[in-house]
Structure formats: structure tokens, C-alpha cells
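[agent] plan:
  1. take the single chain provided in the ticket
  2. run structure prediction with default settings
  3. attach C-alpha cells to the ticket
  4. add a short note for the reviewer (M.T.)
[agent] executing step 1
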Amino acid sequence: MNGVQGTVLVSFVVDENGAVKSPSVLNDIGDGCGEAALDVIRQMPTWEPAEHNGQAVKVKLNLP
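[agent] step 2 finished; step 3 output follows
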């Protein structure tokens, strides 16, 4: 990609049902890489939700 190097950092929430919500870019390296990373996050299948004391809970993740 035009010599662009680095790591895009994205953030998102996995809700109580395992759905990915509120994706955003925390660190973009330019040349469309941030938007491409968001596209990948938006296309992810349902996750296994986090649990706290036996109850499904929302969790915020940051992913390079």
C-alpha cells in the first residue's frame, strides 16, 4: 500500500449477545488502512460474550 507501514489500532464493544458494536479507529496509519480495518471488524461473526459472575456482560476490546 504505497509504502505505508505500521499498525492500525481499532476499538469495539462485544455486547451481551456477542455482537460487535461501536467500532472505531484509535490509531490510523493512513492510505485507507483505518477504514479497511473497520471493514474487517464490521464483518466479524458473532463472538462468545464475556461473563462476570455467570452473567453475560459487555466488554470493550482494543485490537491491533
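[agent] step 4 note for reviewer: Residues 19 and 46 are 5 Å apart (CA to CA).
[agent] ticket updated
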